[in-house]
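Dear support,

I submitted the protein below through the web form. The confirmation email said the job was done, but the results page showed an empty box. After a refresh the structure appeared. I'm attaching both so you can tell me whether what I see now is the final result or a partial one.
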Amino acid sequence: MTEKKTSPPADPLKPYKGRFESYDRIPSEGRDKDDIFRELSVMAEEENARWQTGRVSGTFYHAGDDHRAYLNKVFALFSHGNTIQFDLCPSMFKLESEIIAMTARMLNGDRVPEHHPEDQVCGTVTSGGTESILMAMKAYRDWARQEKGITAPEIIMPHTAHPAFDKAGQYFGIRMVHVPVSAPDFRVDPQAVEGRITADTVAIVGSAGNYPYGLIDPLEKLSEIALTHDIGMHVDGCLGGFILPWIEKLGYAIPPFDFRLPGVTSMSADTHKYGFALKGTSVVLYRRNIFRRHQYFNVPDWPGGMYASPTASGSRSGGLTAATWAAMVYLGEEGYLKAAGAIMAVADEIKHGIDAIPELTLIGEPTFVISFRSDEVDVYHINDFMKLKGWRFNVLQLPPALHFCVTMPQTFQPGIAGQFLEDLREGVAYAQTRAGTPAETTALYGMAGTVEGNRQMTEIMYGFFDYLYAL
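What the results page shows now:
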């Protein structure tokens, strides 16, 4: 065993520094396999111990140890496979086409011909939600250039939409037009979206639900706008795509958010979140194949032979595809409904408990993501206190707020909602005693919202990445 010491780490961001051997070059002689496995097991066990308490918001979409062990077993069968090698790995196209079809039907893609007989939902499997969003934005850019002659494309998005849309704009030369959201609704205003449409607008964006608050934008209105102006409309269901359908089936009031809306021309939904697959897969869907074709990439005259790929990734792990397919057909509708019911039981208890705390204000109508802010106390002080209790919130800004995303790990801990609320009430009391003093959390979030603050934050984050990658 190569662990050197067990004292608390001097740097919590690098807890293994000094405890294990570090490598700045390939070792001249390979190490013992069992020794390597023991070392990695220590890291895994220490990291698992934190989220397995159920005190971490979102992040780990884990459906149980048995489920994960089963998926790892399936992964091993195809861990050496490559989805791009269709001739050598024909199983990959069988599995991915079925993943796409199952996801499309879950999101009411089978109802598309009701709106237009030539429509037929199609899509691809990607490496995650960001790639799904990137691919859809590229498809709209290229579709608009070919079909409408637009060379300076614009896409309109709520300010609450995922930063992956901004990444797409930066990567692909698309102007991303942000529409602010405001209290008390915190959803995008359809009139404000329509007011920003120009001759260069190629698509609009809505979320189901958005990351900060878990809210569903007014997609029905956005759908009407997209149809009126003959532009694309992408619904980001990366977070909610694999749980909202089941919540709706359980009887919750969920507005239409998928291909039932005739203006929706694409959707993203992450299999590796509430689809309970292993990390590294998502699905992007299109109402018509003409959009998907603008996602594809091909170089026919390369000396190495014709090269083509359906997504930004070239090689992708066959193990992840197989495990995703296995998760979906193993759980089935019954399994997804059961999981959604368990998640919502915890989320409802937390939501009602927060609503009863006078100093806190729920944001919107929460489902599986519960967001709250306060006009009475500094929520960042609440976050500081909850960290001491082992809770890990997602910290929001503009305005300051917190959210907790309920996943399966919370459902494995009896009484977790009651403990959450007890600690939260203590956190509010703590924040009241700290009135007028800066919270530790504020040090990171206090500079946002200004041009200079954004520059400083960018430099801080880039330096942070540099630090993490340094030995």
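Response: this is the final, complete result; the empty box was a page-load delay. The chain has four domains: 1-49, 90-325, 332-441, 442-471.
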